[in-house]
Amino acid sequence: MHARHRAVIPDWVSLYYQEPIEITHGEGRYVWDATGRRYLDFFGGILTTMTAHALPEVTKAVTEQAGRIIHSSTLYLNRPMVELAERIAQLSGIPDARVFFTTSGTEANDTALLLATTYRRSNQILAMRNSYHGRSFSTVSVTGNRAWSPTTLSPLQTLYVHGGVRHRGPYAHLTDTEFTAACVADLEDLLGHTGDAAALIAEPVQGVGGFTSPPDGLYAAFREVLAPRGVLWIADEVQTGWGRTGDHFWGWQAHAASGPPDILTFAKGIGNGMSIGGVVARAEVMNCLGANSISTFGGSPVTMAAGSANLAYLLEHDLQGNARRVGGLLLERLRAATAGLDHVREVRGRGLMIGIELVRPGTDEADPGAAAAVLEAAREGGVLIGKGGGHDTSALRIAPPLSLTVAEAEEGAAVLEQALRSV
Fold it and tell me: How do beta strands 38-41 and 383-384 pair?
């Protein structure tokens, strides 16, 4: 299968592991490969399997809807789409909200950029250093992570702001209050050198960047500077939404002192593996487009049925609360397990979104080789994790389904401890 993959798939579509695995099926928090080996899934298809693999409620909803009609497009009234949009609009916290569905987080962020630049009549975007927002031409151009930016050509003028990474960079030595003040001062200085920016796009917790985040309240402080100038805030919740951080349903709620974002984007977990993305914005912003637009596959009846069933399960079983409780236990277990390991710089995170940053012993330099070795060792031990990082960082990414049990958290932590000690 690996040889067949390499013969027809582009070289830049990377695979994990020296001997890549084919995942054939899953159940709960576990998946199986083509050899029949079982793994505890601590990455959930890049934070996409949010509730559980083969969740019966989602499987049933997909099957029943597929038996009625699979596709119609947004040119026709679509009950499953309207019902899910009503639920998301209410949960978003954005007043007079409108919802537009896409098929991915990339497309959601692309749409958000279209809305913001049209509404503001400016192609200038503020973005965070170390950020990631997708693989389209526009989203690559606002991604502040060179490993995921294959071109410098851009339809936008992007200016990068400090603040997404708390414990690296020129402000790392400051207290949280001083850090926020320094980032705000940097933003104000930057705005003094530019024209009228359209929007700031920011992940409340940076995903691909290694699960880094600013102090709570940073983006609220940014909004106090941006809102009087009319600059919109796009909260990229593709990885942080739906209760994954435990403390909040949306990542932006850790920065809520200045109100909700103007635009919110989502994807990944809501579909539990089905292709759902979307944008929420207040009606004034969402309705600013002066031309017709549709989505051929966004809002598909089948994916909407899956999203509604998945969201209902998440809310009815308080998986946000589970992420807070079990994630807190897992975080402390991993911190205890890595105490004294000189190649572990930091164990950070919130809820079931945990990063372990690795460095070369005795230095502050990233060690991607160690990250790759731990990834392999964890897989040998029966646990699948991810990796990420930005400028001179190398991090392991841990993001299991939100239904993770205490016993499974202990199982995974034990394997990860052994993997980290093997490097």
Answer: parallel
